[in-house]
């Protein structure tokens, strides 16, 4: 069992990292907090948002803060799974060569793998990624490559739908969180973003961050220790169970949405893996809040980011997804009492 | 022929004289208008009052001599003048007087009889000259109140039943009474609402019910006690209230800010009890504090705090 002092030191480092990221990417405190939770819960993250709101900068800042090796790839329609594993070329002597691709190149030192515009890649690529995300290993060159510290960050923009491949339910479920990045609403932040030349050069901006305080190769151990340090009580287990059940059958909890037949709305609620992720995230949040007990507010804080991409609507309500899912999440949180 | 012409000239000049005299008479006549307005001249009985009005228009500069009016008081054995009032109005076309008389007659005739209000002479003065205008006597008939031969009944003289007194106008009183009753009913309904007596509005009695539940609970039933108070807050707010959402609760129920400190303690205590490590044993004092908080909330609910 890790001592309270160690956990407290780790928390200090984590909060420092959060502060540094917030200085680089301004006006995204909520998203940064969620990313931090994902980092310490060792979960993969899907970012979604408009073009140019700072998704890539945010992920680069996180990668810089964590240290370790960082790789990125751009999703395109002709990207094939093999492109992630190796690439072939003719060297200066005219001989064909095969070199490891971005996934296997860094070996075990790979800590952040950033998949830009994931919805532009084909389903074959998605399925390769699924294995990497789930097992943190990949078979290539007749052997197995392990990447125990890898954390996948993917992003997709909401604007274009042409030439894109919607992520299958299985792929989305493997993402720990789906974080929406919106344009900041604070006028002072917007003014700063418009006129401050500091944001013109992203490399220089990321370079402002001091060297990592967090050893990426210890993150898995930290995450285990954090999860073990916090034990939920019976009352909280009951509350979490209700939250889970409500995601599958909101009608049983008296939840009614406007102009929706509640018994026909949902195709599937959250998966057991999903609810497990939610509890993991909630525990990390409690740790970041300097508590050794899990409170309903922790579950509520992470419920939307961990659950909204795991609730699948029937196709007849699919076109109202952007409106119905947040409303459903709000209704669930506002309906279920604890104790 | 000459005779005819002379006749014509005579007729024409006579017409001019008549016309001139007519014009000069209209403009210089001292008394231009005199009207005596009287009511019906019949059907009066003893004690009846009779109003006369005289309207006069005279040339400017003339004045009514007030002493020529009959004086207030008894005029004769059966007639009394109760009121005399004169209003005077100066205009461009002369002076106007309105004189009102209120007579009362006390004649008790045995049969219908004609009487007469005596006439008098109105006098007007101008530059020491006096103009007189007679006001004619006004005849009218009076009738007896009862028959000549008086009926007798078994007790002697027959008496008519007394006239029923007219009822006082109670419209305004009834209106005020209705208003007062409406206000009183409104106050009673509000009071009942505040005290939670209205069955359809449970939100005003949530703490009353919680208080009733808490009354019989001991330290062993602390979870039920906490649950009862949580249920009351949730019921009042319409959705679950949590420690980190107290600000939102105060926004919709600002009256509970007065117990903010106790509320923060309660939610923190409940969090520790239900979700904490439960290393601290609950004290009797804690239960008492919960009951006190419920009492304070009940007072706020009733509006007495």
Automatic annotation (TrEMBL), chain A:
InterPro entries for the chain: AAA+_ATPase, ATPase_AAA-3, CbbQ/NirQ/NorQ/GpvN, ChlI/MoxR_AAA_lid, ClpA/B, P-loop_NTPase
Q: Which residues form the AAA+ ATPase domain?
A: 41-185
Task: Fetch the Gene3D superfamilies from UniProt.
Answer: Magnesium chelatase subunit I, C-Terminal domain (1.10.8.80), P-loop containing nucleotide triphosphate hydrolases (3.40.50.300)
Q: What is this protein called?
A: MoxR family ATPase
Question: Which Pfam families does the entry mention?
Answer: AAA_3, AAA_lid_2
Automatic annotation (TrEMBL), chain B:
Q: What is this protein called?
A: Nonribosomal peptide synthetase MxaA
Signal sequence, renumbered to the chain: 1-29
Q: What is the superkingdom listed in this entry's lineage?
A: Bacteria
**Which terms are listed as keywords in the entry?**
Signal
């Amino acid at each position: 069992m890790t001592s309270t002092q160690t956990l407290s030191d780790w928390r200090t480092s984590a909060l420092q990292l959060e502060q540094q990221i917030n200085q680089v990417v301004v006006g995204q405190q909520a998203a940064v907090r969620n990313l931090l939770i994902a980092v310490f819960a060792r979960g993969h993250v899907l970012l979604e948002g408009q073009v140019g709101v700072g998704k890539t900068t945010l992920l680069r800042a996180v990668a810089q803060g964590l240290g370790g090796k960082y790789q990125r790839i751009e999703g395109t329609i002709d990207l094939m799974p093999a492109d992630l594993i190796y690439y072939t070329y003719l060297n200066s002597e005219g001989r064909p060569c095969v070199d490891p691709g971005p996934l296997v190149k860094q070996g075990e030192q790979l800590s952040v793998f950033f998949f830009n515009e994931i919805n532009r890649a084909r389903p074959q690529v998605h399925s390769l990624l699924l294995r990497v995300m789930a097992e943190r290993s990949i078979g290539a060159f007749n052997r197995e490559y392990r990447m125990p510290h890898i954390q996948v960050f993917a992003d997709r923009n909401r604007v274009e739908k042409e030439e894109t491949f919607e992520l299958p339910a299985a792929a989305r479920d493997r993402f720990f969180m789906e974080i929406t990045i919106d344009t900041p609403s604070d006028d002072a932040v917007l003014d700063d973003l418009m006129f401050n030349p500091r944001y013109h050069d992203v490399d220089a901006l990321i370079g402002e961050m001091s060297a990592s305080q967090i050893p990426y190769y210890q993150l898995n151990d930290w995450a285990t220790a954090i999860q073990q340090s916090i034990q939920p009580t019976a009352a909280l287990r009951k509350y979490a169970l209700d939250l889970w059940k409500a995601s599958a059958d909101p009608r049983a909890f008296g939840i009614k949405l406007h102009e929706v037949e509640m018994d026909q709305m949902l195709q599937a609620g959250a998966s057991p893996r999903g609810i497990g992720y939610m509890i993991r995230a909630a525990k990390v949040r409690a740790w970041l809040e300097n508590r050794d007990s899990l409170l309903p507010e922790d579950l509520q804080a992470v419920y939307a980011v961990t659950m909204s991409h795991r609730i699948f609507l029937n196709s007849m309500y699919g076109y109202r997804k952007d409106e119905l899912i947040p409303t459903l999440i709000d209704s669930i949180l506002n309906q279920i009492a604890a104790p | 022929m000459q005779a005819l012409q002379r006749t014509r000239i005579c007729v024409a000049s006579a017409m001019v004289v008549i016309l001139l005299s007519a014009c000069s008479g209209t403009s210089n006549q001292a008394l231009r208008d005199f009207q005596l307005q009287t009511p019906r001249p019949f059907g009066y009985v003893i004690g009846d009052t009779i109003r006369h009005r005289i309207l006069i228009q005279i040339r400017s500069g003339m004045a009514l001599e007030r002493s020529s009016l009959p004086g207030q008081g008894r005029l004769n054995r059966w007639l009394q003048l109760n009121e005399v009032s004169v209003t005077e109005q100066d205009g461009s076309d002369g002076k106007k007087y309105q004189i009102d008389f209120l007579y009362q007659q006390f004649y008790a005739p045995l049969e219908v009889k004609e009487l007469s209000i005596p006439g008098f002479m109105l006098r007007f003065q101008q530059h020491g000259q006096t103009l007189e205008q007679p006001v004619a006597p006004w005849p009218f008939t009076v009738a007896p109140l009862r028959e000549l031969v008086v009926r007798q009944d078994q007790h002697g003289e027959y008496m008519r039943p007394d006239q029923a007194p007219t009822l006082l106008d109670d419209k305004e009183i009834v209106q005020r009474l209705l208003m007062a009753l409406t206000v009183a009913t409104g106050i009673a309904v509000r009071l009942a609402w505040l005290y939670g007596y209205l069955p359809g509005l449970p939100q005003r009695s949530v703490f009353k019910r919680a208080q009733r539940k808490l009354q019989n609970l001991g330290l062993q039933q602390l979870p039920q006690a906490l649950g009862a108070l949580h249920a009351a807050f949730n019921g009042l707010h319409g959705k679950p209230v949590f420690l980190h959402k107290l600000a939102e609760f105060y926004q919709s129920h600002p009256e509970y800010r007065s117990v903010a400190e106790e509320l923060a303690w309660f939610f923190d205590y409940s969090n520790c009890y239900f979700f904490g490590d439960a290393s601290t044993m609950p004290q009797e004092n804690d239960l008492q504090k919960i009951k006190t908080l419920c009492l304070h909330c009940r007072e706020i609910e009733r509006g007495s705090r």
